[in-house]
Design a protein that fits this description.
By secondary structure, the chain is α/β, with parallel strands linked by helices. It has helices spanning 20-29, 71-78, 93-109, 122-127, 136-145, 161-185, 195-199; strands at residues 8-14, 43-52, 55-64, 83-89, 114-120, 149-152. The radius of gyration is 17 Å and the shape is globular. Bound molecules: guanosine-5'-triphosphate. The site of guanosine-5'-triphosphate has 21 residues, from helix 1 and helix 4. Its cofactor is Mg(2+).
């Protein structure tokens, strides 16, 4: 992939063990690795070419380490990201608190970054509903407040994984089209807080 142009820098953020690497593995290689858990050290990069209508979009995905030991490093990786997939484990409420921490950071330091909240390991809830520790409606309200989109995924079964990354690419294409349109018309793009800017990528 060296030398390939990346259209969208995507950063994966979230507490350790929430399943960021597994999400990327499922999306890029369509597999779920079983075996002993191996924590990410630093960060890993992978590029994936995909289609949105008749366009080709290359996502450059940075999978960061969730351990707080690497927090300073994760900050380096989200700089300039157009999209952040902020993950939490649906069976671990503390991981949602950690997700809120990253959202706060992104909102204050990377205002141009579109946020996607991702509740992981939904297959565990299929097995036993009582394992849910993060309420869907509470997170949906929170997502609406911060103008983020919400997905609940399983890297084990593949549930909603393609949809999540497809949405990231589609939003990139529609925001890029919106920017071309407004630049043509001389609209000031400094107004990113304008709800219309978000409404074009928040459904
Ligand atoms: N049942 C189930 N287990 C999952 C799922 N996703 C991840 N896991 C498991 O959760 C553990 C942690 O997954 P990782 O993908 O390594 O987590 P991570 O967020 O990348 O962890 P760090 O690299 O430490 O930040 C592993 O044992 C995975 O097999 C899922 O969708 N369902």
């Amino acid at each position: 992939m060296s030398g390939q142009r990346v259209d969208v820098k995507v950063v994966m953020l979230g507490k350790e063990y929430v399943g960021k690497t597994s999400l990327v593995e499922r999306y890029v290689h369509d597999r779920f690795l079983v075996g002993p858990y191996q924590n990410t050290i630093g960060a890993a990069f992978v590029a994936k070419v995909m289609s949105v209508g008749d366009r080709t979009v290359t996502l450059g995905i940075w999978d960061t380490a969730g351990s707080e030991r690497y927090e300073a490093m994760s900050r380096i990786y989200y700089r300039g990201a157009k999209a952040a997939i902020v993950c939490y484990d649906l069976t671990d409420s503390s991981s949602f608190e950690r997700a809120k921490f990253w959202v706060k950071e992104l909102r204050s330091l990377e205002e141009g970054c579109q946020i996607y909240l991702c509740g992981t390991k939904s297959d565990l809830l299929e097995e036993d509903r009582r394992r849910r520790r993060v309420d869907f409606h509470d997170v949906q309200d929170y997502a609406d407040n911060i103008k983020a989109q919400l997905f609940e995924t399983s890297s084990k079964t593949g549930q909603s994984v393609d949809e999540l990354f497809q949405k990231v690419a589609e939003d990139y294409v529609s925001v890029a089209a919106f920017q071309v349109m407004t630049e043509d018309k001389g609209v000031d793009l400094g107004q990113k807080a304008n709800p219309y800017f978000y409404s074009c990528c928040h459904h």
